[in-house]
Amino acid sequence: MRIMTVCLGNICRSPAAEAVLRRKLAEAGLDDVEVTSAGTADYHVGERPHELTRAVGTDLGYEFTTVGAQFRPEDLDEQDLILVMDESNLADVRALVADPEVDAKVRMFGEFASDVESAGVREVPDPWGNPRPVFEEMYRQIEDAADGVVAAVRDGRV
């Protein structure tokens, strides 16, 4: 299975979600799942994740092995699940979709949060330009939703 996490610039939310999912999937013994990330814009292609994404993530034990990439139309065919961080990312990715079957692969990351039944599907807010506590909150939200993604993969729901 191939999963791609997607945000705007691919330096904050999606590389954080990629790192979190990689570790959580490995811990669950789901070694046959490949996780990558991309941004809907080309602002940071080739760049490492944002310094606070890396700093907070490293403190939490995550590793960052990729650099910024832009989402490509081919990704719609190559990925089995595309997890976007907010409604704007969702609209940008879905604008490239021509096939309803492919559209079903594109999901909000927040759909997998533990409180989705009571709180609804929440966006993962972009922390860019904010202080460290905002990045820490981003990781709490991503870690929670990542647990739901891992459970869905393990149970064959995605």
Automatic annotation (TrEMBL):
Superkingdom per UniProt: Bacteria
Classification via InterPro entries: LMW_PTPase, Ptyr_pPase, Ptyr_pPase_sf, Tyr_phospatase_low_mol_wt
EC number(s) given by UniProt: 3.1.3.48
Keywords assigned by UniProt, alphabetized: Hydrolase, Protein phosphatase
Class of the enzyme per the UniProt entry, highest EC level: hydrolase
Record flagged with keyword Hydrolase: yes
Signal peptide stretch: none
Domain Phosphotyrosine protein phosphatase I stretches: 1-152
Active site positions: C7, R13, D126
Pfam family, one: LMWPc
GO terms for MF: protein tyrosine phosphatase activity
Family to which the UniProt record says this protein belongs: Belongs to the low molecular weight phosphotyrosine protein phosphatase family.
PANTHER family named among the record's database cross-references: LOW MOLECULAR WEIGHT PHOSPHOTYROSINE PROTEIN PHOSPHATASE (PTHR11717:SF7), LOW MOLECULAR WEIGHT PROTEIN TYROSINE PHOSPHATASE (PTHR11717)
Protein's recorded name: protein-tyrosine-phosphatase
